Amino acid sequence: MADHLYVIKRDGARVPVSFDQILGRIREQSAGLQHVNPDLVAQKVCNQLQDGMETRKLDEFAAETCAMMQSRYHPNYGLLGARILIDNHQKNTPASMLQCVETLYHEQSIISDELHDLVCADPAGYELMIDYSRDFMFDYFGFKTLERAYLLKKDGVPIERPQHMWMRVAIQLHGKNMERVKETYDALSQGYFIHATPTLFNSGTAHPQLSSCFLLTMKDDSIKGIYETLGDCAQISKWAGGIGLSIHNIRARGSKINGTNGESTGIVPMLKVFNDTAKYVNQGGKRNGSFAIYLEPWHADIEDFLRLKLNQGAEEDRARDLFYGLWIPDLFMKRVEADAEWTLMCPHECPGLADVHSEKFEELYVKYENAGKGRHTIAAKKLWQMILDAQIQTGTPYLCYKDAANSKSNQQNLGTIKSSNLCTEIMEFTAPDETAVCNLGSLALPKFIEDGKFNFEKLRQYTSILTRNLDIVIDKNFYPTPECRKSNMHHRPIGIGIQGLADVFAILRMPWTSAEAAKLNREIFENIYYAAALESMMGASDGVWRNVAIDTYPSFHGSPMSKGKMQYDLWNEVPVTTYLPWENLRKLCSQGIRNSLLVAPMPTASTSQILGNNECFEPFTSNLYTRRVLAGDFVVVNKYLVEDLVKLNLWTSETRTAIIANNGSIQGMLELPAELRELYKTAWEIPQKTLIDMARSRAPFICQSQSLNLFLSEPSYAKMSSMHFYAWKAGLKTGCYYLRTRAVSSAQKFTVEPCLTCSA
């Protein structure tokens, strides 16, 4: 083979292929990796070599070969593939931060003047902080995710190394403060937490739009108000923001329009315009815009609204590129439960319903009913079945509970909260002149396991750093509209989430249904909330303790926290972490705090893939799944399960085949130990009551909300009603983000594109 095939080196030289050189390189990269056979990899690579292949392409092919082998042999082949890929990447990219910045600044005009000038002023100072060996901490799919979407490019080719990206984010936030730059760089590069996708995309660029979530309400029920709102949505989407929009105040179909003496065509034609705008204004060329539309179920167009995403039906009645959520008052759930009638109303004819909640809403709604102002009545259960039908077909609408969201909000002094965001974890006040904004980041929970125990002190330490960083984002951010800036400066909300809870349970041998898992889930969130509130209250800025009177967010007075009420007080709960001085924290926070909202566990689809963790607080959806990259589809097996099977000498081709045949489940594999079958139950096999109970247990320490997906293999009205009513009665603000279902025959869940915008 070496006598007949040639490769092209990076310098353009054409040299004969050497099996020994290929083997030597693979052996070098596999150092310290158990369960990896470099000879086998080299043999597979050489058997498929093509004459004239560039050495950089040879590395990429070798890495792909390793990625293909990890499901058949061992996950460590994926780590070997990553090492080969990253070593190749380092050979093809600038060796220093200064060189990288100069290339992106002068040749691409991507980097901001500020970042360029900072790095040029002290290149050695920043470079000394960088540890390029940390590039090799990524697995194959984590690095491919960075390469595809996150690392800045020149002519479509990545120029950054991962360490340059982390440093770019750290400098964006902390500038000349080298101590803080190093602190953030180390935390990011070692994988303790990660900032949200827009922060990774846009830090250090000419327009550093670092925020993930934007919430709007319609400016006015008029042509001018609708199109001004549409323009704001387009401007926000241009800069990679995900949108949540409430449309409760838009008059229903058939409503009189006084100015023209005509009749309104309702929300459907309007939403088709929003749908087309979401498709047209892509997010920096990376993906289509994403809009979630929220409506309360008393609106007279609710039935049309529920059909907008359905697969069947006339195209003029559909707007399938939008996402849909219901903002549900308790009264509707009570009427469904009582099998009572539900009156649909037009907000133009029955004004004010969107502006009140809880008892005041019920009083106003019943007043309109008694006065005969409703459009028509429908059996509440019939409308509920329409909601469930839509969920079975599309996974949506999201179910968010208006009264819980408002009565348990630290922003309740501002007015009625009217919607959530694209991923149902952000719940903030909006007004015609205020677009709510939230900046996100997530803590990587597996990093806090040390010697078989969870290190809560370290969790609090890194929560404090992340809290401080997210607060700084508010000040360093580029705002797409004046309404965004006004809201964020007045209320200063942030959103801290997590990733890798399933990894933690697997590492610590805690089945999801165990009392130990339930206790740890709650304790983690108590510690996060405590540390975030303490840092927001008393964190040092540039080494100087804050002046609370000056640095308290402007709309603080009148909030529950200003009255000494923490989030858990609004749930009538008491923390179980008695080792934390909660009463002292309460007193401090009642004097003033930097941020109105702190904790918001979001989906982490892409950022958890970067760090190699399972998404947010979800169970593994399968023990075998497909990762899709440009090179193709790769089958991946749960790495923790494989490690356990290897230890038991049970990782065989027969076992692998059986897992594939069972669609990633091991519950029917009775030859495996019962302990493993219990530990590796998937989201489809864990009772949904367990997931809802966990959500309820951590909720008193989540001051925004949480992106709670629910999973039903075989959905039915009875199962879904039972599940949703259980979540509502538990007092959750978000009852259901996506309902994941799968057909029995194909075992395929909904193909729902992950929210890249909110991923943190």
Describe this structure in words.
The radius of gyration is 27 Å and the shape is globular. The two termini are 48 Å apart. The strands form nine sheets. Strands 6, 7, 8, 11, 12, 15, 16, 19 and 25 form a nine-stranded mixed beta sheet that branches. Strands 2-1-3 form a three-stranded mixed beta sheet. It has a two-stranded antiparallel ribbon with strand order 4-5. α19 packs across α22. The chain has 31 helices and 26 strands. β17 and β18 form a beta hairpin. It has 760 residues and is an alpha/beta fold. Among the domains are: 6-91; 95-190, no CATH class; 622-681, no CATH class.
What is the strand and helix layout of this fold?
Blueprint: E1 6-8, E2 14-16, H1 19-29, H2 38-47, E3 53-54, H3 55-69, H4 76-91, H5 97-107, H6 113-121, H7 123-127, H8 140-150, E4 153-154, E5 157-158, H9 162-174, H10 178-189, E6 193-195, H11 197-202, E7 213-217, H12 223-238, E8 242-246, E9 256-257, E10 262-263, H13 267-280, E11 291-295, H14 302-307, E12 323-328, H15 330-337, E13 341-344, H16 358-370, E14 376-379, H17 380-394, E15 398-401, H18 402-407, E16 436-444, E17 449-450, E18 453-454, H19 456-476, H20 482-491, E19 494-499, H21 501-507, H22 515-538, E20 540-541, E21 544-545, H23 548-551, H24 567-570, H25 582-591, H26 605-611, E22 624-629, E23 632-637, H27 639-647, H28 653-661, H29 674-679, H30 688-698, E24 710-712, H31 717-729, E25 734-736, E26 739-741
Parallel strand pairs: 1-3, 7-8, 8-11, 11-12, 12-15, 16-19, 24-26
Antiparallel strand pairs: 1-2, 4-5, 6-16, 7-16, 9-10, 13-14, 15-25, 17-18, 20-21, 22-23
Helix pairs in contact: 1-2, 2-3, 3-4, 4-8, 5-6, 8-26, 9-10, 12-13, 19-22, 22-25, 22-30
Protein name: ribonucleoside-diphosphate reductase
Domain ATP-cone: 5-95
EC number: 1.17.4.1
